[in-house]
Amino acid sequence: MEYRLGTGLKIKDKGETVSLVCPKCEKTVHFHMFSNLENRLNATFPFIKSNNVYFLICPKCASVFTVDEAKGKNFDKGEKLSIGNFDLKTLKEFKNGNE
Question: How far is CA 99 from CA 39, 77, 85, 96, in A?
């Protein structure tokens, strides 16, 4: 399986969350949050659309989860409680056009 966590070359460390329960290992942990840029070509102006992809890693089982961009931006502004247990989403498998 292959997953896509943005197209940028630089992954930025955003800090630790409050205590959350990992959906995979079911342990209470402080997830570490990161972000990366996602650039897409657009058929209309502006031709390149950029947004941030926010993802969290469990320190116990190394599972990776994503959150909505709005939740990630709020966390980035210092709102540590903007991400809760119900905000964690599993990654969608990346399908290459050659398959």
Answer: 22, 40, 34, 6
CA 76/CA 15 separation, integer angstroms: 8
Contact 82, 71 (CB under 8 A): yes
Bridge partners of residue 39, in order along the sequence: 50
Q: What is the pTM of this model?
A: 0.76
Contact between 1 and 91 (Cβ < 8 Å): no
Complete edge-to-edge strand list for the sheet that includes strand 48-57:
12-21, 28-41, 48-57, 64-67, 89-90
Q: Distance (Å, rounded) from C-alpha 94 to C-alpha 74?
A: 26
Q: How long, in residues, is the chain?
A: 99
- As a whole number of angstroms, the distance between CA 81 and CA 71 comes to 10
User: What are 6-61's pLDDT values in tens digits?
Assistant: 767 788 888 899 999 999 999 999 999 998 888 777 788 888 777 888 899 999 99
